[in-house]
Design a protein that fits this description.
The structure holds two protein chains of two kinds. Chain A contains three helices and no strands. Chain A is mostly helical. The longest helix of chain A has 16 residues, at about 5-20. In chain B, the strands form two sheets. In chain B, strands 1-9-8-6-5-4-3-2 form an eight-stranded parallel beta sheet. In chain B, helix 8 links the parallel strand 8 and strand 9 (about 190-195). The chains are: A mainly alpha, B alpha/beta. The structure holds flavin mononucleotide (FMN). Chain A: InterPro entries: ACP (IPR003231), ACP-like_sf (IPR036736), PP-bd_ACP (IPR009081).
Chain lengths: ~80, ~325
């Protein structure tokens, strides 16, 4: 999977989860500060990322931005 | 529809009642855990930020009082978590419950040691993630609870978690009598966890001031601290709790809220409530069900009274598991 494909899929999850417009999500989007995700929202996102990419993430992962999410997915897909 | 109370998990533990003691830092001592397990529930030692040797001391205390299985509740954020798990494995504890955090890094070794693992979950997605990691059950805890809490109520959280996972769900938060336990089963739970109700058990070693405060409490006598700065905790109202909430608002109005300073204000206050009964300065963690609790009685009576009432209401035999 290319970075762009991963990003597109992650974006799709974020758009759906937080009712955003596509153009509101970029790689630098800060999940906590830009889209007001609280810790329970983040679990929801991680849960869906796990299912959609068929990977496992640690719950405690330090994820701040869309880029962080994409990186985690990339690392897990490569593992 | 038949109500199923003999799930394999509780059967394996030889429990007589599908009722679990919620792990309680400082308050959940070996003596209380032993009394609950001995009577046929599942007792838990609360460990908070203890060192391994403190945990071992309480485990040994339980073992000196009962041969029945019991559990240890661990705080995954503790700096001593590694040594705590070492002690738990060495001592052959039956069950581990985890509060805030992700137990999955420790799951393989706990399972290899034959230990049942059940995390507390505040939401459906966390319950699903935990199921995927392979935990044995989840404790769905509503915000009626005493101690650190999430956002959902027990009434709303439990059935949604039950629908989302295929492992046993234990309902926690706001359960204090047989009606509450029966309600938990109606919501699809396999068992009920209680914290506050057991605080006034005869064997509970909390300060008499703390017990008196629970028995005197009315429905509206708890307050949630940490709403603004995070780490929400439900406590009985007193000077410390009200000041905390007030300071929290002031802190937030500052340009740079000092969460660390607020945390410092909070740390140690639960111990002061439990061990010293410090009426003004202690954090008397207790749930909204405090208003229903009017007496101190042996853990065995609490369990049998509650189960008699619950089975009566559910129209099932008062048989044991
Ligand atoms: C004094 C006190 C301390 C607690 N400490 C912990 C803890 O260390 N870890 C944890 O997972 N839950 C803790 N809890 C939550 C309980 O395990 C339990 O889930 C809760 O009390 C259930 O709600 P109830 O109080 O309405 O029965 C604590 C609760 C109380 C009242």
């Amino acid at each position: 999977m290319t970075d762009t494909e991963i990003f597109d899929k992650v974006k799709e999850i974020l758009v759906d989860q937080f009712d955003l417009e596509e153009n509101e999500v970029s790689l630098t989007t800060d999940l906590t500060n830009d889209i007001d995700a609280d810790s329970l929202d983040l679990f929801e996102v991680l849960n869906r990322v796990e299912d959609d990419f068929d990977i496992k993430l640690a719950v405690a992962e330090d994820i701040k931005t869309t880029q962080d999410l994409v990186d985690k997915v990339k690392a897990q897909l490569a593992a | 529809m038949a109500v199923i109370v003999n799930n394999p998990l509780f059967k394996k533990l030889g429990m007589k009642y599908p009722i679990v003691e919620g792990g309680m830092t400082w308050a959940g001592t070996g003596a209380l855990a032993a009394a609950i397990s001995e009577a046929g529930g599942l007792g838990f030692i609360g460990t908070g930020y203890w060192h391994g040797e403190d945990v071992r001391r309480e485990i040994k205390r339980v073992k000196s009082l009962t041969d029945k299985p019991f559990g240890v509740n661990v705080m995954l954020l503790s700096r001593h978590i590694r040594e705590v798990f070492d002690v738990i494995i060495e001592e052959g504890v039956a069950v581990v419950a985890t509060g805030a955090g992700d137990p999955s890094p420790f799951l393989a070794e706990l399972h290899a040691a034959g230990i049942i693992v059940m995390p507390v979950v505040p939401s459906v997605s966390l319950a699903q993630m935990m199921e995927k990691k392979g935990v044995d059950a989840v404790i769905a805890e509503g915000m009626e609870s005493g101690g650190h809490i999430g956002m959902l109520t027990t009434m709303t959280l439990v059935p949604q978690v039950v629908d989302a996972v295929n492992i046993p769900v234990i309902a926690a938060g706001g359960i204090g009598d047989g009606r509450g336990v029966a309600a938990a089963f109606m919501l699809g739970a396999a068992g009920a966890q209680m914290g506050t109700r057991f605080l006034t058990a005869t064997e509970s070693e909390i300060h008499p001031n703390f017990k008196a405060k629970i028995i005197k409490a009315k429905d509206i006598d708890t307050i949630v601290t940490g709403n603004i700065l995070g780490n929400r905790a439900r406590v009985l109202k007193n000077k410390m709790a009200k000041n905390f909430v007030k300071n929290e608002v002031n802190e937030l109005q500052k340009e740079k809220p000092d969460a660390a300073a607020m945390e410092k204000l909070e740390s140690g206050t639960l111990r002061r409530a439990v061990q010293e009964g410090d009426k003004d300065g202690g954090a008397f963690m207790a749930g909204q069900i405090s208003g229903l609790i009017k007496d101190e009685k042996p853990a065995a009576d609490i369990l049998s009274d509650i189960w008699t009432q619950a089975t009566d209401l559910m129209g099932i035999d008062n048989t044991t598991l």
